[in-house]
Amino acid sequence: MNYKRLETFVWVASLGNFRKAAERLHTTQPAISARISGLETELGVKLFDREGGSSPITLTSKGKELLPYVEKILYQTEQLRKRAGLSTAYSGILRLGVSETIVNTWLPDFLSRLNKDMPNLDVEMTVDITANLSNGIKDRSLDLGLLMGPISEPNIVNRELCTFSLSWVASPKFRPT
């Protein structure tokens, strides 16, 4: 299996568009088309319904079935590279969305550790409210979100990282009615 073809399949499926996948992978739309065509030939299945025009490309039922397996292969490949100590295993740009609460608490320690563990990774950070960051995760303009609560989408993985205790604080003169 060709790694580039598998990676391309995941990006086209995620972005729903060959041109956007080409931009993301820093290549041309014909190269993306060739990779998908080659993968479809290699697997002997059609992965995408291509209706043409400006309508988004959608996965076939077989494409939907195979996507989690391909994502797992790519994840395992990155884990193998990490275990082997390849410094290029994590390189490029990470588009990170962070809520203000996290920015003001443990984010500096997280970024320090991230830089130590993955020195070839460049972080583009967006600080915003959870609702806006959630939209960025859904539309794939963000790669990772550190949010104040989960996102209810079948294709998004949520992991609880921490909890914050909240308190109501008021002046002793305050008298609720």
TrEMBL record:
Entry-linked Pfam families: HTH_1, LysR_substrate
Keywords of the record: DNA-binding, Transcription, Transcription regulation
InterPro entries: LysR_HTH_N (IPR000847), LysR_subst-bd (IPR005119), WH-like_DNA-bd_sf (IPR036388), WH_DNA-bd_sf (IPR036390)
UniProt-listed SUPFAM superfamilies: Periplasmic binding protein-like II, Winged helix' DNA-binding domain
UniProt domain HTH lysR-type: residue ranges: 1-60
Taxonomy, superkingdom: Bacteria
Family: Belongs to the LysR transcriptional regulatory family.
Name the record gives this protein: LysR family transcriptional regulator
